[in-house]
Design goal:
It is an enzyme of class 3 (hydrolase). This protein has eleven helices and 15 strands. With 369 residues, the protein is of the alpha+beta class.
């Protein structure tokens, strides 16, 4: 069945008559006349006042770069997709992702007639990154190779915004996205930091120039900014859970928290096998997986990792951070009522990193439970 024969499924309609619907692997927002858009798209990106359709399209996982797309580049591919969907490319703007449109989340909120609706798709399990991480490519001669994993957001504002307020709205929405990732402790895949987004995130802001509500401020102190931020946090949190499986519950695991430092079961076993006691790998790994989900241990892990973060940011002197982390480590055996006394003088080492000491202490505890 061709794309133009596939039924459009209406998902939501705003009070301003913007219609959000699903068609095959695309989510489309049909805009009434008089809409202003600010878009990061290759197709009609930047500020425009003639956009009639906004789309978010899922590309095949087999596509690895712009040259693999039909048409040979992203802009031309979006034109082709638009035409197949029955949309005029000259009046459209859109985004690409490998995330499923079935995992799109729509959140809407209002205050005294001011309505904000946010539509988000997202995944961070592959491409989550932190601002300032080392680059994945250097763009030259308009050739680069994008990677998978993207958070795409469409923000529909039921008010007329001055042009500068439109750009501020994008800043506020971006901060909302980042706040959601930080609250989930979503890891960067390129450093030991917490992700602030992905390397391929896109966003489209839409305002209604025909609306009698005229606003000049969309920053965090304004009610509009509050609505944008809250909607973004909720939508990003939900879609990341659906697409990437990262939720408050899945993050309640010591091994998950340690992933951003490249710590895994193999590393734990390597350390545990050097400590006193019986060396039976299957038994140790089973206990490690079970103990790692203990909420008290996860809380202590979070405390130690935050100390490490603050040391790396220069907020805490390394020696002070180490002493505080060691104090936390001394409490770990008491959580599990271990009869044996942990030989801290043999295990804790001032010359090793806080992380190395944490792994040794917790490996000893797990081995002796």
């Amino acid at each position: 069945m061709s794309n133009d024969m596939i039924e459009r499924k209406i998902l939501f309609e705003t009070s301003g008559k913007e219609v959000i619907y699903l068609q095959d692997s695309s989510l489309i927002v049909e805009l009434p006349k008089g809409r202003k858009t600010l878009s990061t798209s290759w197709l009609n990106g930047g500020y425009k006042d003639n956009i009639e359709s906004v789309l978010n399209h899922t590309i095949a996982h087999r596509s690895h770069g712009a040259a693999d797309l039909e048409g040979g580049n992203v802009e031309e591919y979006l034109r082709i997709v638009s035409k197949r969907l029955g949309i005029k490319p000259e009046n459209a703007t859109g985004m690409l992702t490998t995330a499923s449109m079935e995992n799109a989340v729509i959140v809407s909120d209002s205050f005294r007639g001011l309505e904000v609706t946010v539509i988000v798709t997202g995944g961070v399990e592959i491409n989550g990154g932190r601002a300032g991480d080392e680059a994945s490519y250097y763009q030259e001669d308009e050739r680069f190779e994008p990677v998978g994993g993207t958070i795409n957001a469409i923000v529909l504002i039921g008010a007329d915004l001055l042009d500068y307020a439109l750009t501020r709205a994008m800043m506020t929405a971006t901060e909302g996205k980042t706040a959601a990732l930080q609250q989930l402790m979503a890891p960067s895949r390129y450093s030991s930091g917490i992700a602030t987004g992905t390397g391929t995130d896109m966003m489209i802001i839409v305002a209604d120039s025909t609306n009698p509500i005229k606003l000049t401020d969309s920053g965090k102190h304004s009610k509009l900014g509050e609505l944008i931020g809250k909607c973004m946090i909720e939508a990003v949190t939900k879609t990341i859970g659906m697409q990437s499986g990262i939720t408050a519950i899945t993050q309640r695991d010591m091994l998950v928290r340690l992933e951003r430092f490249k710590v895994d079961e193999a590393m734990y076993w390597k350390v545990a096998s050097t400590l006193e006691g019986e060396n039976k790998k299957p038994i140790f790994i089973e206990k490690l997986r079970r103990v790692a989900k203990d909420p008290i241990l996860v809380s202590l892990t979070a405390s130690v990792l935050h100390i490490m973060d603050e040391v790396s940011w220069g907020l805490i002197p390394e020696n002070a951070g180490r002493k505080a982390a060691f104090a936390i480590m001394r409490e770990v055996p008491s959580i599990f009522d271990i009869d044996m006394e942990l030989p801290f003088n043999d295990i804790l080492n001032d010359h090793d990193t806080i992380l190395d000491n944490w792994i040794r202490v917790t490996a000893w505890v797990i081995k002796n439970i």
